[in-house]
Design goal:
Layout (H helix, E strand, L loop, with lengths): L1 H19 L10 H17 L3 H17 L3 H17 L3 H17 L3 H15 L4 H17 L3 H17 L3 H17 L3 H17 L3 H11 L9 H14 L3 H8 L2 H4 L3 H8 L27 H8 L6
Helix pairs in contact: 1-2, 2-3, 3-4, 4-5, 5-6, 6-7, 7-8, 8-9, 9-10, 10-11, 11-12, 12-13
Length: about 300
């Protein structure tokens, strides 16, 4: 089967080369037909899992489309070449080609397709190069924002924010979350603004910036419905515990369902939050533990001492 598909691909390549040849009665290459044959060759090689040959066929198709001034088809060919590189696990090179395609989509006046290509590139590289993925997601968000598609823009900003938190790039994460919050406020999705305020506070506290965290809560009072919400009450309790270095109070808030069921990256921030100086934990009424050497008093000893003088 694979050999058959390889032969099929080679036949399409030969036809494409024939369409590009000129002669006495053919003065101009037939770029359109050649591009079609290169595309068919790429599909055949892909089906045979010959991804290197498939990628080369896609790039030849791109050149043919460029010579024929078919910019949209040129972009598609570059994008397909990038996907072949992805199959070969050459992710940085794949992203580079897909990013190139997306820029061409923008030049061709198809921003939606450009944004989808950028998002696809971000997903490809996310586990290998999170920093590049953040950049791609932010680029995608900018494209959507310019097109006034704010819901799509804020979704991509959210992906970037979570990656920044995961990489403990808290300064950048704080700015990214603020941008998310501004967009959610603009589209009047107020309950999500509350959640973003929680995320902001956790990030600022991990930056050891209590003042910025408190300011976030104070500024959020202007968001309709925030004051008096469970989110507001929990944040006030969290800030109070953090300010008083009460680790128990902070842990109680961060272990509440409101915090634990946030996006995983933010839930982890809550669970790992430690007050300055390690905090002062309240004594819990635990069962008596074994005493260190030299400490011999026990509850039984105390009871014995009480009656050591007899009952009278």
């Amino acid at each position: 089967m694979a050999a058959q598909k390889i032969n099929e691909g080679l036949e399409h390549l030969a036809k494409a080369e024939k369409y590009l040849k000129t002669g006495f009665l053919k003065w101009k290459p037939d770029y359109d037909s050649a591009a079609s044959e290169y595309g068919k060759a790429a599909v055949a090689f892909k089906n045979a899992k010959q991804f290197e040959q498939a990628k080369d066929a896609c790039l030849r198709e791109a050149v043919a489309h460029e010579n024929n001034r078919k910019l949209y088809s040129l972009c598609r060919a570059y994008e397909q070449a990038g996907m072949m590189l992805k199959e070969m696990q050459k992710l940085p090179e794949a992203v580079q080609l897909i990013e190139k395609a997306s820029m061409m989509y923008l030049e061709n006046g198809t921003p939606d397709t450009a944004a989808m290509a950028l998002e696809r590139a971000g997903k490809l590289i996310e586990n290998v190069d999170p920093e590049k993925a953040v950049q791609l997601y932010q680029q995608t968000a900018n494209v959507f924002e310019n097109e006034e598609r704010l819901r799509q823009a804020v979704e991509l900003l959210g992906k970037a924010s979570r990656l920044l938190v995961r990489g403990r790039r808290f300064d950048e994460a704080a700015l990214s979350i603020q941008k998310e919050k501004n967009i959610y406020k603009e589209i009047e999705n107020y309950p999500t603004c509350y959640k973003k305020t929680i995320a902001q506070v956790l990030v600022h506290l991990h930056r050891n910036d209590y003042v910025a965290a408190e300011r976030c809560v104070r500024e959020s009072y202007s968001i309709p419905g925030f004051n008096g919400s469970e989110d507001c009450a929990a944040l006030e309790q969290l800030l109070e515990g953090y300010d008083q270095q009460d680790q128990d109070q902070v842990s109680d808030v961060c272990n509440s369902p409101l915090f634990k069921y946030m996006d995983n990256d933010y839930a982890k921030l809550g669970l790992s939050l430690v007050v300055p100086g390690g905090g002062i934990k309240k004594k819990s009424p635990a069962t008596p533990q074994a005493k260190p050497d030299g400490v011999t008093a026990t509850a039984a000893d105390e009871e014995e001492d009480e009656y050591s003088g007899g009952l009278c």
